[in-house]
Design goal:
The complex is a heterodimer of chains A (175) and B (158).
Chain A: H1 2-23, E1 43-44, E2 52-53, E3 63-68, H2 73-87, E4 93-98, H3 102-112, E5 118-122, H4 126-130, E6 138-142, E7 148-153, H5 158-174
Chain B: H1 2-17, H2 19-27, H3 29-39, H4 58-72, H5 77-88, H6 103-133, H7 139-150
Helix pairs in contact in B: 3-4
């Protein structure tokens, strides 16, 4: 009896490990930038290339940085949710237009609505790399002191917004 | 005839299609080798089982350009690796760092080998002991065993 017990036990442990492995999402690489100062940049604005924007301009408020692009299909799916969130005036959303063509980006905002207070225009994607972006869309939550507090990888969902994003923003605004 | 000629011309033009790409690499083969060597240590986060040296995903190309740019600025290999880790986390390193949380990963196989050898050794020793402890046969029993083996049968049996 004993000689079966040991292999069976080992097998069950193996199954449990594999089971846990199946529930993990390898695409979600935790960002090392969480609770660190948001990397600085100075980029031209999407709507007006003569003006610039950088994280320093937003010190003192809680804000979102949504990395998006007109060629990114998932961003288009996410877009209506952002427009809706923008209407609620809970938190200012800033866009990082990532490796896009300026005209294409502007056209998307004209046609589908513009949830952003402003969009920064990152033609080369260098700021994206600086922020550890490896897939669009990504959404960062930045607090009043300029620290990145959370990063949503992939499209936001109504559930994520209600259960995670809004409570977090409220908490950061209260603090 | 015309189409054959056209084909020939196009064939001759083919290397030109790659001329642009090659020009960048041939520009500075030493630098390019360093870029590729370093890129082989960085994981492509879009295609996670490839290094950015192996990958042509857009992000991988961008990261290679960053590596090239930083090497050109005179940054060391280690500085660039640190830069990447700071932004993308340790996962970006293709071979994990050796530290307390990864000891099992690095030395687990060796541990299994050692345990396996240990188990084998113990079992072999037990077996040898059992052989030694096997009861010795008396002269009578030897004779009976020999006759059984030779096929003549024992006394009591036929």
């Amino acid at each position: 009896m004993n000689r079966f017990l040991l292999p069976l036990g080992a097998f069950i442990v193996l199954v449990i490990f594999l089971w846990i492995g199946l529930t993990l999402n390898p695409r979600e690489v935790p960002s090392p930038l969480i609770n660190k100062v948001a990397p600085t940049f100075r980029l031209p604005q999407l709507h007006d290339s003569a003006k610039t924007i950088g994280p320093e301009d937003l010190r003192g408020k809680v804000w979102l940085l949504n990395v998006w692009s007109s060629w990114c299909v998932t961003c288009r799916q996410e877009h209506p949710l952002l427009v809706e969130l923008g209407r609620q005036n809970l938190v200012p959303i800033y866009g990082l237009n990532y490796k896009d063509n300026r005209d294409d980006g502007l056209a998307l905002l004209r046609n589908s609505g513009d949830p952003y207070v402003l969009s920064a225009y990152d033609r080369e994607g260098n700021v994206g790399i600086d922020w550890g972006v490896y897939g669009v869309p990504e959404t960062f939550v930045i607090d009043k002191s300029g620290l990145i507090r959370h990063k949503f990888i992939g499209a936001l969902t109504p559930e994520l917004i209600q259960k995670k994003l809004i409570p977090l923003v409220k908490e950061l605004n209260g603090a | 005839m015309h189409s054959k000629l056209l084909f020939l011309v196009l064939l001759l033009l083919m290397p030109l299609a790659h001329a642009d790409q090659a020009a960048i690499t041939k520009d500075d083969p030493v630098l390019e080798k360093r870029v590729m060597d370093l890129s082989a240590h960085l994981r492509c986060l879009v295609c996670q089982n490839q290094t950015i040296a192996d990958s042509n995903a857009e992000l991988a190309v961008d990261l290679k350009n960053q590596v090239r740019e930083k090497l050109r600025q005179g940054q060391s290999e280690q500085e660039i690796l640190d830069y990447m880790v700071k932004r993308y986390g340790e996962f970006v390193l293709f071979s994990p760092l050796v530290k307390s949380t990864t000891w099992l990963l690095w030395f687990g196989p060796l541990l299994l080998l050692v345990v396996g050898l240990g188990v084998l050794f113990v079992i072999l020793r037990q077996r040898r002991k059992m052989m030694q402890q096997a009861p010795a046969l008396s002269a009578d029993e030897h004779a009976r065993a020999a006759s059984l083996l030779s096929g003549k049968g024992g006394e009591g049996h036929s």
